[in-house]
Amino acid sequence: MSFLKDEMTGLSIEDIGAKKQRSMYRLKIQSKFAIMERRFEDAIATLTKILQCVTLQYGRDDNQTVPILSEMCWCYVQFGDKKRAVQSLGRMKRINKNHPLVTIQEKLIRQMRNSGNRSRTRVEMTLCKCSNPYCSKVEHKKGEFSLCDRCESVKYCSRQCQVQHWKAGHRKQCGK
Question: H-helix or E-strand containing 147?
C-alpha cells in the first residue's frame, strides 16, 4: 500500500495531502499552458487526469467536475470535434444543468461547425468514490459501481448507500 510506504519514509498525513495538492496544481498549470499553446490533445489528456483525481476524491456528481468538463468541451470546440463536445456538455448537464458554464458551452457548440476533425485522445471512464456522503468506498475497477437509474449522475457501491443517500437529500436533486 502506498500509504504504508509513505508512512515508513516518515511522511505525515499532512505531507501526503500537500503532495497530492501540488501534483493537482501542476496538472492544472500544464493544462492551461497546453490550451494557451493550442495543443488541445495534450490539454484534454491532462484534464482527464485532473478529472480522475477529482472523481476519486469527491465523487462523480461533485460540482468541481463541471469546470473541468467545461474546459474539455472548449478544447473539443476549438479542435472542431463537435461529437465529443456534445458528449462533454451532456456530462456537465447530468451533474448540474443549471450551472452557468453549461449555457456558455451550449452557445459555443451551437455556433460551431463540425470540421470533421476527431480528437485522438480518448476520455475514458474514471474511477470514482461512492456518491453517498456517508460512504468512503472507491471503485477498484472502472464501472464497478452502479449509476442512479433516474438521473445517471451519481454512482453507488451498494443498494444500501443508494437508499441512504436518497433519504439524505438526493431525492430533491434527482430528476430528468
Answer: strand 146-147
This prediction's pTM: 0.66
Give dist(CA 86, CA 72) in Å, integer: 11
Domains annotated for the chain, with CATH where assigned, are 1-118 (1.25.40.10), 127-176 (no CATH)
d(CA 53, CA 102): 22
Q: Which helix (H) or strand (E) holds 146?
A: strand 146-147
Do the beta carbons of residue 51 and residue 28 sit within 8 Å?
Answer: no
Backbone torsions φ then ψ of 5, nearest 5 degrees: -60, -45
The reported pLDDT for the residue numbered 14 is 61
Residue (of 113, 52, 103, 39) closest to 83 by Cα position: 113
